[in-house]
Amino acid sequence: MEETVVDPPPEPDGINYPGVSERLKATVMDSMVLVFMMIGVTYLFAQFEEVSATVRVAAFIFIFVLYDPLMTSVFGATLGHRSMGIRVSKGTDHAQRIAFPLAMVRYVIKALLGWLSLLTVGSSKQRLALHDMAVGSVVLYR
């Protein structure tokens, strides 16, 4: 017997919020993006005779610490989010992206809690993770 996977019906507010599966897939995609960025930077640095430790540290901080918050605040989604057709917005105004400071706090909480942050996704109508609750963000389908 063939099993058909059906998207859950929209919530009473008419919005169908992404679940854990889509968010995990986006995270895996973003991890792959980070790895490729690291390889690219390493290759770039290898082209120069000497690259200072300060430049190396700055590059790696940019990649690991600023990728998610910058992409989320400027574009509303990381590359992983985009690949899954989801985006991050303000919980009070779905047309607006979250500000960079909130995106940074969201990322720090997500990084510190890891997968634990997603445990609450199934417990709310808007499928909010702990990091979303902390900053008032929501993840939506594009």
Describe this protein with a few key phrases:
142 residues
Q: What is this structure, in a nutshell?
A:
With 142 residues, this protein is mostly helical. It is built from 5 helices and 2 strands; from the N terminus they run H-H-H-E-H-H-E. The mean pLDDT is 91.
How would you describe this protein?
The mean pLDDT is 91. Helix 1 packs antiparallel against helix 2. The protein starts with 19 loop residues before the first helix and ends with a strand. It contains 5 helices and 2 strands; from the N terminus they run αααβααβ. The chain has a two-stranded antiparallel sheet with strand order 1-2. The chain is 54% helix and 7% strand. The longest helix has 27 residues. With 142 residues, the chain is mostly helical. The chain is elongated, with a radius of gyration of 17 Å. It has one domain.
**Taking all residues together, what is the mean pLDDT?**
91
The helix/strand series, from N terminus to C terminus, equals HHHEHHE
Structural domain tally: 1
Spatial order of the strands in the main sheet? 1-2
Number of helices: 5
- Pick out the low-confidence regions: none
Radius of gyration: 17 Å
Shape by Cα distribution: elongated
Structural class designation: mainly alpha
Major β-sheet annotation:
2 strands, antiparallel
Give the strand tally.
2
Span between termini: 33 Å
Strand content bin: 5-15%
Helix content percent band: 40-55%
Strand and helix map with partners:
Blueprint: H1 20-46, H2 53-75, H3 79-84, E1 86-90, H4 100-113, H5 130-135, E2 137-141
Antiparallel strand pairs: 1-2
Helix pairs in contact: 1-2, 2-4
